Protein 1
Amino acid sequence: MSEHNRPEAFDRLRRLPVVGRAADWGLGPHAVSKRTREAGTRIAGLDVTESVCPYCAVGCGQVVYTRGGELVNIEGNPRSPINQGTLCPKGSASRQLIQQPGRLTTVLYRRPHGTEWEELELEQAVDMIAERVIAAREAGWQDTDERGWRVDRTLGFCSLGGATIDNEENYLIKKGFTALGAVQIENQARI
Ligand code: SF4
C-alpha cells in the first residue's frame, strides 16, 4: 500500500460494519442503518435510532432517543412486527442499563471463601481470567476421543452467551472459542 492511498484504504476498512462497531463501541454512525436514519423523530429535537431490546430472545424493536449522544428515552418501536410498539416491564426499563445510579462500573472480585467484594483493576482482572482460561483449556484438553478418533478439543470450558450480545460480538466469540478448541458454544438469542 502506498503512502498516497493509505488513508483511503483505512477509511474503507473502517466502514466495514464489524470494524466500525469495534472502533466506536457500537454507538457511532456505523451502528445506524439507512432505514433508521430515515425513520425521523417522534419527539421533536431528538435524534432517533432503531434498536432491539437486549434482554431476551423475543427481540422486541425499540426506538432510542438521544440528544447530543446522551440517552433521553427508549420506547417500543411501532414499526416492529414483533412487539408493534409495546415493551414488557423489563424492556421498558432498559434505559437503566446505562443510566441506573447503582450501576457497577468497576470490577468486583470475591476470592474463594472470601466474604467481602474486592475492587480490581480491569487489567488485573483480565490477566486472572486469561490464567484460568489457559489452565482450564489444558486440564480439559483431548487429543483423541474414547474411540481413538482425533478431536483436538477442550472440554475444559464452554461459552453461554446472552441476548445482550449482538451479532458481531457473537461472531467474534464463536471464532475465539473455536480457536481455543472449545466445542460447547451456545447463545440464548434466536434473532
Ligand atoms: S421487551 Fe421484554 S419481551 Fe421484548 S425483548 Fe425485551 S425483555 Fe424480551
Note: The longest helix spans residues 122-139.
Protein 2
Amino acid sequence: MNENLKNKVVVITGAASGIGKATAILLAKYGAKVMVTDINKKEGLLTTKIINDSGGFASFYNLDTSSKEETVIVLESIYKEHGAIDLAVNNAGIGGMVGPLHTIESSIWEKMIAVCLSGVFYSMQEEIKYMLIQGNGRIVNISSLAGLNGVLAGSHYSAAKHGVIGITKSAALEYGKYNIRVNSVCPGFVQTAIIDDVPEKVLNYTKNTRIPMKRIGTTEEVAESILWLLSDRSSYINGESLAVDGGFQAG
Ligand SMILES: NC(=O)c1ccc[n+]([C@@H]2O[C@H](COP(=O)([O-])OP(=O)(O)OC[C@H]3O[C@@H](n4cnc5c(N)ncnc54)[C@H](O)[C@@H]3O)[C@@H](O)[C@H]2O)c1
C-alpha cells in the first residue's frame, strides 16, 4: 500500500507558516494539489511559490477561517475550480498563553474560540459537504497537547483544542460509513511563531524536565504524521488523536 496522494486536492488552512506550511510542502512532494489558505497573503503566496518552483502544484486562497461566510465561498471556489476536495488539514490557529482564567478578557476568549474552534467547525462543514458528494475524504484537525490536558495561563486555548478533539471524534462516528476518515494531531512544543509568546524559562524547563526526547519538535515532524493520517497507510485509523510530542504525554 502506498500513500496514494497523487493529484489529490488538499485544502490546508493556516498554510502560510509553521506546521501548515511544512505540511503543504510535504504533501506537494507526494503529488497532492495543495490549496494554501491563510489570512496572511504575502507568506501564503510564498508557500505556493516554493511548491510551484519545485515542480509541485499549489494555489493560494485568502481565507479567514473564523468567518463562516468566507469559508463557504472559498471552499466552493476550490471545489468548482479543482473538481474535488479529497483531503483537508484544519490547522489555522493562534497562540494562547495569556494568564489565569479569571483574568482572560471576553474579547480574547471570543477570538480564541472563533479561530481555533469555530474555524475548524466551519471548515469541516464545507469540506464534508463536498466529500459526501464524492463518496470519500480524509480530514486531519490540528489540536494540541492542550486538547488533552489543561494548560497554565491558557484555559481558553485548552478549551478550544479540547473542542477540536470533540468534533473530530463526533465526525468520525457520523461519517465513517461514508468513507470519510477524521482524525486529529496533537503537537507538543513545536518550533513556530506560535511559541514565541511562551517565556524562554518555561520552554527550557519543559524541554529539560517534561519532554523525554529533551528537545522541541520540528514542523516537518508534525507534517509527517499528518501525511500518514491522510494517506492510505492509515486506512483503518478514524477518530484518533495522535500526540506528536517527543513523549511528553507519556508521563
Ligand atoms: N507550534 C506549537 O508548538 C503548536 C503546539 C500545539 C498545537 N499547535 C497548533 O498548530 C497549528 C499551527 O500553528 P503553528 O504552530 O504552525 O503556528 P504559526 O503561527 O506558524 O501558523 C499559524 C497560521 O495560521 C494562520 N492564521 C491565524 N489565524 C487565522 C485565521 N483566522 N484564518 C486563517 N489563518 C489564520 C496564521 O496566519 C499562520 O499562518 C495551530 O492550530 C496551533 O494551535 C501548535
Note: The helical segments are 18-29, 41-53, 68-82, 106-134, 155-175, 200-209, 219-230.
Protein 3
Amino acid sequence: MHEWALAESIITAVTKIATKRKLKEIKEITVRIGELQQIEEDILSFAFEQLKKDIFRNTLFLILRAKTELECQICGVKWIFRRQNLDEDTIEKIHFVPEVAHAYIKCPNCKSPDFKIIQGRGIWLEKIKGAK
Ligand SMILES: [Zn+2]
C-alpha cells in the first residue's frame, strides 16, 4: 500500500516546486525508481491518476527504472547488476529483501560476495515539465 503514500508525497513535492517556480500547470512528471525498490508501477500510476487535481489535471505521469550499480568492498570494482542473469525466483527474493542479494551476486573480478549497492534503491523525481 505504500504506492498511495508515495503518489501523495510526489504530488506534495511537485506542488512545492510549482509554487516556487510559479507554475500554473504541470505537464509532465517523471519519477525514477531503483530496480531493487519494491514498487508496483501500475498501482503507483493508478494512485496518481486518482489523486491528481488542480495543477495536475493534465499531467502525464512517467515511471522509469534505474539500473543497479554495485561496488566490491574488497577490490573496489564497480559493475552493473543484470537481473536477466538471475532466475525469476531469485529476483523475487532480492525484491523483498535487498540484503539477500549478497547470497546470489558475486564480484565479477575477485568473486567476493562483499559488495555495497551504490544505486538501485530509492525513488527520485527525475524531471518536471510545467507551464506558467
Ligand atoms: Zn572484487
Note: The chain has two domains: 2-66+120-131, 68-118.
